[in-house]
Amino acid sequence: MSSWLKWGVILVLISFPFQLNSFVYQVEWGRGFTNPYLSVFITATDIFLLFSGLLFFLNLKGNKTKLHGGNTFYFFIVLLCLALIIIPSLFSANNEIVFDFFITVKSFELLLFYLLIVNKILSTQEILRIFIYSMTAQALLALSQLLFQSDLGLQLLGEPQISSENPHLARFSFLSMDILRAYGTFPHPNILGGFLCMSTLSTFLIKSKFKHEWTFLFAIQLLGLFATFSRSAILALSFALILLGIWYFEKLKEKKNLVLMSLIALFTIELSTLLFMRGLLFFKDKAFLERLEGYQISLELFLSNPWGLGFSQYTLMMDKGTNVALMPWEYQPVHNAFLLALVEMGTQGFLLGLFIIIFCLDNLFKRRNDFLSHAKQLRRQVFFAIILAFLILGFFDHYLLSLEQGRLLILLFFSLASLFAYEGLPIYRIRTATGLHKIEADQV
Questions:
Q1: Would the pTM count as exceeding 0.70?
Q2: What is d(CA 259, CA 279) in angstroms, rounded to the nearest whole number?
């Protein structure tokens, strides 16, 4: 049974970046178009999660082993977030009972995902490696889409149908040329870019199994990220790499750190190029103007509902935040995960999220140079950089909260942080003039 359980978790980790889903239900919203934010899909990840969860609890009962929640504080935060998602939906005035039921089920799936990670069904190295390899495959697909300017016909793997002839797809304009941006198997290039940003940073956390493995993984993922032309993802990764470079500045001349130095230089050039081509006139940029409109709608919705609309209710209530008639494709969450949390989960949900971010950043920053081994010190510093990258991504987009893929991405790294914090404290023996003493050095 344990072998099947491991394979179930492996399939969960492989499948969640892909769009292998089937439509089940949509809230009646009177616009005629499919609204993905008011729709329910049964995904391959749902099936693998439920399968793994069943085997997991049967295995616990059969072996009479104890259920672990990881670090107590992290587990409490997960339960509190779960309550903030479910409770507002129960008291929502929208009477969308079916939709709220599915939201509740999918919320418990997030808890199940957390438990599967922190109970060490797979090692942290195995989890990270599966995620990185999966995203490297996505990067190769993205490069192929950029080259051919169309999809590769891999709809069975969740690839969207994209073509340069479709005027509604995301493009990058340069010198009067419209270049179709790469989607991978994601709904939008920015989402693929965000995932590749996180997988690239995660590569620092794995042990290289063969010569030049790091170089190969970094090169493919970076090229895949370039193919998305995602400014937010490139900005997030740039800041994270520059921060790591500052911490390791004295060691950058060492041969083993040439990869980091090259990444910093490459991304500085790439970011400067993108800002020059698209960012200098951002006040006239269509995407920027759309975000401003979303901020205004969010403010109106929050002021009228300071305790929250209910999770995933934003697009259903958008009409109450504006007097302007919106087109069906304009009904999407505000492009800011923090504003979205404020509107949907209310003041209490926003304050909880703010507390979690401040606690994690403060804890990691103050202890980034503790007396730890080089590997554990790097792990802590990389996690600080990952949180910074999440903050930048969340400031420019909503998918981290509005899409199941984004929520699983956040929870993946939150679970790993909980797992690292749960591990026993290493003991170092230091001989002094008064004898042999033991000191403890805490981990992430």
A1: yes
A2: 28
